[in-house]
Design brief:
This protein is of the alpha/beta class. The two termini are 18 Å apart. Helix 1 crosses helix 5, helix 2 crosses helix 3 and helix 3 runs parallel beside helix 4. 37% of the residues are buried. The chain has a 5-stranded parallel sheet with strand order 2-1-3-4-5, sandwiched between helices. The chain has one domain: Rossmann fold (3-Layer(aba) Sandwich), CATH 3.40.50.2000.
Length: 140
Amino acid sequence: MKIVVVCGIDGAPRADALQAALGELREDCSRLDLTAVPGETALARMAGALREAEEALTAAPPGAVALTGDDDHSLAAALVATKLQIPLYRQEAMDPAPSVETTARVVTLLADSVMSADPAEAAAAIVELTAANTPPAGPE
């Protein structure tokens, strides 16, 4: 079951760390970088992120989505994953900024589970949870 790590506006280092930790435990991990266009309004950024996330997650539906940030792009991915009924795992923020407090709360409420801020611990928990949610293979 493929896991997609979503990288928001400023989440590249955390997404890199989580993706590397997941890669050590399983091969079927990819990354979705949602982009922001400089000068866009917050509403335009959110609308673009929603479109991007929906296109990516419907084109090749993953078994799980892992979020590493608390920004609008993480919220967009969380909303799309929830709509598509894809399990959603959120990596705990190390020090959430006051400017994203509301977004962080909504993402946390949408997440099926909140993982440790430590990438290795988060990756291990995500792998364990996705394995528990994977139906056994049928007879061939």
